[in-house]
Specification:
The complex is a heterodimer of chains A (248) and B (681).
Chain A lengths: L4 H12 L4 H20 L8 H5 L1 H21 L11 H7 L4 H33 L4 H28 L4 H22 L5 H9 L7 E3 L2 E3 L1 H29 L1
Antiparallel strand pairs in A: 1-2
Helix pairs in contact in A: 1-6, 2-4, 2-6, 4-6, 4-7, 4-8, 4-9, 6-7, 6-10, 7-8, 7-9, 7-10
Chain B lengths: L5 H14 L4 H10 L1 H23 L8 E7 L5 E2 L4 E9 L4 E11 L9 E11 L3 E9 L8 E7 L2 E7 L5 E2 L3 E5 L17 E5 L14 E7 L8 H12 L3 E5 L10 H4 L4 E11 L12 E11 L3 E6 L2 E9 L2 E6 L14 H8 L16 H9 L10 H23 L5 H25 L6 E11 L4 E12 L3 E7 L3 E6 L12 E6 L2 E8 L3 E12 L2 E8 L2 E8 L5 E8 L2 E8 L4 E7 L27 H11 L13 E8 L6 E2 L5 E14 L7
Parallel strand pairs in B: 2-9, 5-23, 10-11, 10-12, 12-13, 13-18, 19-33
Antiparallel strand pairs in B: 1-3, 3-6, 4-5, 4-7, 7-8, 14-15, 16-17, 17-18, 19-20, 20-25, 21-24, 21-32, 22-25, 23-24, 26-27, 27-30, 28-29, 28-31, 31-33
The chains are: A mainly alpha (248), B alpha+beta (681).
């Protein structure tokens, strides 16, 4: 993977040239004040301990939304887009196979998601300690963040490959997708929503099962099936779009 | 060894069987001589092995077969709204099994302005093979429109049964009669009585005082109490002190009344019997003609008050014990001539008259509003909100990440060094912050506060109202162990809650009851509890014109601190009253010295607002819970004498043996004597 040119290009642009630091800056500069204010503002009220009580929930949901949102944008090459080589040049001029390009993109996405979560780790761990959230729950929350970030951000790669030369269209699609994930999924069936599911998990609440045609599925099953399906479809579409790009 | 013919072989083999040691040859001989028998043996042996194998490795092939039977109340009767006994008979017609028996009832609900929640009575038990076991519970549903559910769950299966309680209740308390196993009821109370008379055998008497709370009177007639268990005796004792009425009717068999177990209840010492003439009063019977030769027990009074006597023999004696009463009737009403007397039912009804509604002690106030005040006090729970340290930690972390990135961007450190430094910095920050914030402030897992008001009752007993709150900072299970003697304990309904309350489990075992409940993080639950206990602190008031004589004798094992006496227009600080203290003091009831004593004008009645005890929690409990403003205390606006003091190191009525839970216990003793009667509300 070290020799993957696509990955090296991404790392060079993002980290060596520093174009990607803005993402991590935004991530931390939004998450940190939200956490602080969610602790500080209730302390001005009579029930001052209620801020501590919900600190980890607030922090983890904020982190989830931010990580997913920025991962989608990073996958969609919204930061320093002029610096990235187009796919056609990778395949035709540089002689990279579709598989190599796809792996490079996925590897960099994984690296970015890992870095995002790594930077959020101290803030979330502190919030968990103040809220007295059991450590296994905190650790599981990080796994959830990783899972959701991959499930959704893969669609950023799909849009990138599908509409590489239409940057504005991609941005609109990505934002619509994020809006649907965050808001519309809650309206359709609440357990599909990642934030609702994460809150239910942290609060040890049972979400309502799904009843369809006399069959009943537990909320957890539906939730993970939906997200695994979303991720699988995203991966399949990404590969299909890369092949299509090669044929064109 | 060889044999020539069959007969000889048979004979020889028999000889070997009886007299010779078994050898391989001899076995061969036997097998060959009895092939059918050997085959049978082999078959039976294999069968047994198979059964054993099946039992060991496939237990589901020979499961326990459990059947349930329930016995509601006292022969199917109980008073609505009161706890009642419930006997559950478990029959196992299969293999031995271990399981849990659960009885689920519903508490609270719309009638109590709260969301209904299930209360589960749980007991773990072992049922041996082909056995029957009876378990006694005391259940207390708040309403009976939902069925009571009995479930026995074991590894081999689940057996469940639902009971409709609507067929069993009576709106009035039940009268119980224990009469030495007589088939017909020897004591008639007449059809006019609103109470149901239920005859019980001694073994059917509950061993839990709470099960008797729906009983107004218990009658002993011609009954030996020798077979009464220790727990049954204790339950009776406790039921009486909690307000139960015991009627002991004498009989010809006076020896039964000399047994120690009966003597502990009797206010007299029975020495024999005598035939006397009984002169019923006009109020007791239609006829005023005397009834001759009535069997009457001869006795000497030990305690209590003689209500009536005949020819020097105490006929009717009553003795108060706690909030209850024991009445002893010396005459044998179950034998002629008194059993044939027409006025007997009416006479018995006078003895079984419902207890007069005694002035109920003012209820303490206990709700979310009181708790909101309590949690604000720094001593209740460390309201540790590390805003400053959290802010500094965030700033430090952001600065550190920024600095590392800047160093890398400026090429002052290599890429690998940057990565290692960043990972190390993030790890140290996370771990250090976790240790700092998780241990800072010493936040406990939970806080348990118990606030008790001991209301001075007569004869050295107190009726206690205990308000409890369990506040949790963690999602966890709590187990509260109730000491013996509690009458009821109910969670306070909170209609404002967003989600339904979780089930509360009451588990009995080892002579104790345990409440088990789950709480979420930063959640709380309020309870109310009541019990009657002995606390020999005697306070008497005697009004002597413009002065008040107060007699106080503290025979309890506890010291009282910060004691006060409030009279209309005056307030007297009495300081501490250590155990063993006994004094008489005269206080002025006149309007003089009001300024010195910090008192108020006489017309202002009792005003407790300015009282303070130097501790915020005590102040909140006193002003908001024990004497809530503009509530109960307004009942005595015409005037009342109020004495109170805080009990030092009170005995806990509930225990939580967990060092991670902080426990507070506050107990106030009070005695209130209304002047000129309580004002109607």
């Amino acid at each position: 993977m070290k020799d993957n040119l696509v990955l090296r290009e991404n790392i060079e642009i993002f980290f060596s040239e520093g174009h990607g630091f803005a993402v991590y800056f935004y991530l931390l500069i939004i998450l940190a004040p939200i956490e602080f204010l969610s602790l500080y503002l209730p302390s001005l009220d009579a029930q001052m301990w209620s801020g501590s009580a919900s600190l980890f929930k607030v922090g983890s949901v904020t982190a989830l939304l931010l990580i997913v949102y920025f991962a989608l944008r990073v996958a969609n090459q919204e930061f320093a887009p002029w610096r990235f080589l187009p796919l056609r040049r990778w395949t035709r001029e540089r002689g990279q196979s579709i598989v190599t390009v796809g792996r490079g993109q996925l590897a960099f996405l994984a690296l970015h998601v890992t870095c995002s979560i790594l930077l959020c780790v101290p803030l979330l761990i502190w919030a968990g300690a103040i809220a007295r959230t059991p450590f296994p729950r905190v650790a599981t929350t990080f796994l959830f963040l990783l899972f959701y970030a991959f499930s959704y951000s893969i669609w950023g790669l799909v849009t990138l490959v599908l509409w590489e030369r239409r940057a504005e269209s991609r941005q609109v699609v990505i934002r619509c997708f994020f809006f649907c994930v965050v808001f519309v999924s809650a309206l359709v069936y609440l357990p599909l929503n990642p934030a609702a599911f994460l809150l239910a998990f942290l609060g040890r609440e049972e979400l309502a099962p799904l009843n369809l045609g006399g069959w009943q599925w537990s909320a957890t099953t539906v939730h993970f099936t939906f997200h695994l399906a979303l991720m699988s479809i995203g991966l399949a579409l990404h590969r299909w779009a890369l092949r299509r790009e090669l044929l064109n | 060894m060889s044999f020539a013919n069959g007969k000889a072989r048979q004979h020889a083999s028999l000889t070997i069987w009886l007299h010779r040691p078994v050898t391989r040859d001899s076995i061969c001989c036997r097998l060959s001589s009895r092939p059918v028998e050997a085959r049978w043996r082999r078959t039976i042996g294999s069968g047994l092995c198979c059964v054993l194998f099946a039992i060991l490795f496939f237990p589901f092939l020979c499961k326990a077969e459990i059947s349930l039977e329930a016995r509601v109340g006292f022969h199917g009767v109980f008073q609505l709204g009161r706890p009642f006994p419930l006997g559950v008979v478990l029959r196992n017609s299969g293999r031995p099994t271990e399981g849990t028996l659960e009885i689920q009832v519903f508490k609270s609900g719309a009638t109590m302005a709260g969301a209904p929640y299930p209360l589960i009575y749980r007991r773990e038990l072992f049922l041996s093979a082909q056995s029957e076991k009876t378990l006694q519970f005391t259940v207390d549903p708040d309403y009976i429109s939902r069925p009571l559910t009995i479930t026995f769950e074991s590894p081999s299966g689940k057996t469940s049964r639902e009971l409709d309680l609507r067929r069993h209740f009576t709106p009035t308390p039940v009268v119980l009669l224990l009469s030495g196993g007589a088939a017909a009821s020897p004591v008639a109370i007449g059809a006019a009585s609103s109470n149901r008379l239920v005859g019980l055998s001694l073994s059917e008497l509950p061993a839990d005082p709470r099960a008797l709370l729906g009983v107004s009177h218990l009658i002993f007639y011609d009954q030996s109490l020798r077979e009464l268990s220790r727990f049954q005796l204790l339950a009776l004792d406790h039921w009486i002190t909690s307000g139960g009425h015991l009627l002991i009717v004498g009989s010809l068999n006076y020896a039964l009344y000399q047994e120690p177990s009966m003597s502990r209840f009797l206010p007299v010492r029975v020495t024999g019997t005598k035939r006397v003439n009984f002169f019923p009063s006009r109020a007791e019977g239609d006829s005023v003609a005397p009834i001759a030769d009535v069997w009457t027990q001869v006795s000497t009074v030990v305690a209590g008050r003689v209500i009536s006597e005949n020819q020097g023999i105490p006929v009717l004696v009553e003795n108060h014990r706690g909030k209850g009463k024991i009445v002893y009737l010396a005459m044998d009403v179950g034998r002629p001539p008194l059993s044939q007397w027409e006025g007997l039912p009416r006479f018995m009804q006078t003895l079984l008259a419902p207890p007069g509604a005694d002035d109920p002690s003012p209820r303490t106030h206990w709700d979310d509003a009181v708790f909101s005040q309590l949690i604000l006090t720094p001593s209740f729970v460390s309201t540790y909100v590390p805003t400053v340290s959290f802010f500094l930690a965030i700033v430090g972390y952001l600065a550190g990440v920024g600095l590392l990135t800047w160093l890398w961007q400026q090429r002052r450190i290599r890429q690998m060094t940057f990565m290692v430094c960043l990972i190390v910095f993030v790890s140290i920050s996370g771990l250090g912050g976790y240790l700092l914030f998780s241990r800072g402030g010493n936040v406990p897992d939970g806080v348990f506060l118990s606030a008790t008001v001991m209301e001075n009752s007569a004869h050295g007993y107190v009726e206690s109202q205990t308000n409890l709150v369990l506040f949790s900072t963690q999602i966890r299970q709590y187990s509260l162990q109730l000491e013996r003697g509690w009458i009821d304990m109910v969670p306070v309904s909170t209609p404002a809650r967003e989600r339904p309350e979780k089930a509360v489990v009451l588990q009995d075992g080892g002579g104790f009851s345990r409440y088990q409940l789950a709480l979420r993080e930063w959640d709380y639950r309020l309870f109310r509890m009541r019990f009657v206990d002995r606390f020999p602190l005697h306070v008497e008031f005697e009004q002597q014109g413009e002065s008040l004589l107060m007699k106080l004798e503290n025979l309890s094992a506890k010291d009282l601190i910060d004691c006060w006496l409030l009279v209309p227009g005056h307030r007297y600080a009495l300081g501490n009253i250590p155990r063993g203290t006994s004094w008489r003091k005269v206080f002025s009831l006149a309007g003089a010295n009001a300024k010195e004593s910090g008192g108020l004008g006489r017309g202002e009645g009792l005003n407790l607002r300015e009282l303070s005890f130097g501790e915020k929690t005590r102040d909140i409990l006193f002003h908001s819970s024990f004497f809530p403003r503009d509530r109960e205390i307004s009942r005595w606006s015409r005037g009342a004498l109020v004495f109170f003091g805080w009990v030092k190191d009170p005995e806990p009525r509930l225990r939580i043996d967990d060092p991670r839970i902080r426990i507070y216990d506050y107990t106030l003793f009070r005695s209130i004597l209304p002047l000129g009667g309580a004002e109607d509300e």
